[in-house]
Amino acid sequence: MKIELLFFGIATDLVGETKLTYDVNNITTIEDLQASLIRSFPKLKNLHEFAIAVNEEYANDGQLLKKNDVVAIIPPVSGG
Amino acid sequence: MKSRTSIIVTSDILNLNECYNFVQDASCGGIALFVGTVRNATKNKEVTLLDFSAYEPMAIKEIQKIADLALEKFDIHKIAIHHALGKLKIGEIPVIIAVSSAHRKAAFEACEFAIDTLKETVPIWKKEHFEDGEVWVNAHP
User: Fold this and answer.
1) pTM here?
2) In this complex, how many residue pairs, one in chain A and one in chain B, have their CB atoms less than 8 Å apart?
3) What is the pLDDT of residues B118-138, one digit of tens each?
4) Residue B121: CB partners within 8 Å, gap ≥ 6?
5) ipTM of this model?
6) Is residue A50 a part of any domain in this protein?
7) Chain A: residue whose CA lies nearest to B61
8) Is the CB of A80 less than 8 angstroms away from the CB of B58?
9) Chain B residues within an 8 Å CB radius of A48
10) What is the CATH number of the domain that holds A51?
11) Structurally, how many domains does chain A consist of?
12) How is domain B2-131 classified at the CATH fold level?
């Protein structure tokens, strides 16, 4: 199934995209997705960590993705 | 609780008076203001400007959560949290937090809670620009 990926901050620079459509298995947890993203975009390894938001809310490791979810790669934040 | 919170994420210049006027109330004995300003150096290296970007809809939601939580946790009347985006020069203002309360302690505590939490949870990023390059803050261990 397809999901939409959004990249922010340094993740945009590492991946060279702000937005793209991504294919995942029907049963994919956030943890699976993080592993899959690192395989697809090895440069994300340069980040010591990144969080995932699904439909504008931080997601838990075990949460399952649904078709057409909007998934954001959230590098360590630095507002303020 | 939205009428007791003012949340703005904007590419415009932040307005201190707007934050102050929003929280000001006859029932309050004080207003705590935190104003974040762009510092001219980081780790002894001269900074020329900071460039802020955000996942805007989520940033607004996360800031709203902080404001709502502050109203729950502390005995305060109103809270304003405004954050600027884009390129800011030395001395310019990326963030303002204003809190009013009947008694000062709650306002101080809520103000500190709000800025500390914002720095941990809100999807906003800053890139430091130097004479010889630029770096995303917090991105590397």
Assistant:
1) 0.96
2) 78
3) 999 999 999 999 999 999 999
4) A58, A77, B62, B65, B66
5) 0.95
6) yes
7) A56
8) no
9) 140-141
10) 3.10.20.30
11) 1
12) Aldehyde Oxidoreductase; domain 3 (3.90.1170)
